[in-house]
Amino acid sequence: MSRAGARGGAAEEIRAEIGRDYPGWNPWQSSAGRWWAARTGRAPSGGAMTVDGDNPDQLRAALAEQERIAGSA
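^ that's the sequence the OP posted. Answer follows.
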């Protein structure tokens, strides 16, 4: 099943899962179907406050990169 265009309960489940995996971020799916996350605290040097992806997997990749940046800051 593609998770790219998840809506309703499926989108909420995915959002909650990403939020648990990346607790310093607030994820959501836009009305256009893209996935976004905003940092809930301060960004480290070189880090972003908001990241996005076309689907949950791309958002997770962006969040993992931000975690890598935070770990090396």
